């Protein structure tokens, strides 16, 4: 169908271009709100309901990780949003004892299903599990840190290394920076990546770090603030290629 083809082309563009990703997220905000409403059983309120922020992040993740062989995109995104929200509720249950896994979340007529009914036990990939367990507070805090550098989550996706050699070079630079806290301090204070020091200390080419500057900044910011789950997620983005051609 032409509609499906158009959406596929939009996703391809969004995986390569941050502006396209932001545009696609804005375009499908009614869908994200609808999926959130199905889960919390009422329309979500922007700036008030944590669930909506988590659903937006899950939709963004779905854009980045989608492949044609995974089926219809909206169904794929719906599963990602639902699993993210389930794990958020589970985390709230563990830490504050407020949410019951037995509470109904997706009733149709008289048939009410609980959180436990929704849990997809087949998803045992470590990276996906770490992604789903990320707390909303961590996501928002990290997004705020990125914003102070003029970056967004979709900017990072565009800058992720896709080739093994490039990824290895970026990892060498990251490992060197982590060993020298003064470089992390310099990054935070100047809002600029210390490329000269990283290239000299890690022995990597300047053009490599310049090409993936946003990705390296994001990882280092995660190190400066202890975002362990976010850090793992960003590493995984570099291993997720685009759509198969």
UniProtKB/TrEMBL annotation:
Family matches, as SUPFAM superfamilies: Sigma2 domain of RNA polymerase sigma factors
GO cellular component: cytoplasm
Swiss-Prot/TrEMBL GO biological process terms: DNA-templated transcription initiation
Principal subcellular localization: cytoplasm
InterPro entries reported in the protein's UniProt record: RNA_pol_sigma-I, RNA_pol_sigma70_r2, RNA_pol_sigma_r2
Chain span(s) of sequence motif Polymerase core binding: 50-63
Ranges of the DNA-binding region feature: 195-214
Record key words, sorted: Cytoplasm, DNA-binding, Sigma factor, Stress response, Transcription, Transcription regulation
Compartments it resides in: Cytoplasm
Domain (RNA polymerase sigma-70 region): residue spans on this chain: 24-94
Source taxon at top rank: Bacteria
Any one GO MF annotation of this record: sigma factor activity
Activity control: Negatively regulated by the anti-sigma-I factor RsgI.
HAMAP family: Sigma70_SigI (MF_02064)
Family stated for the protein in its record: Belongs to the sigma-70 factor family. SigI subfamily.
Function recorded in the entry: Sigma factors are initiation factors that promote the attachment of RNA polymerase to specific initiation sites and are then released.
Quaternary context: Interacts with RsgI.
Protein name, per record: RNA polymerase sigma factor SigI
Annotated source species: Candidatus Eisenbergiella merdigallinarum
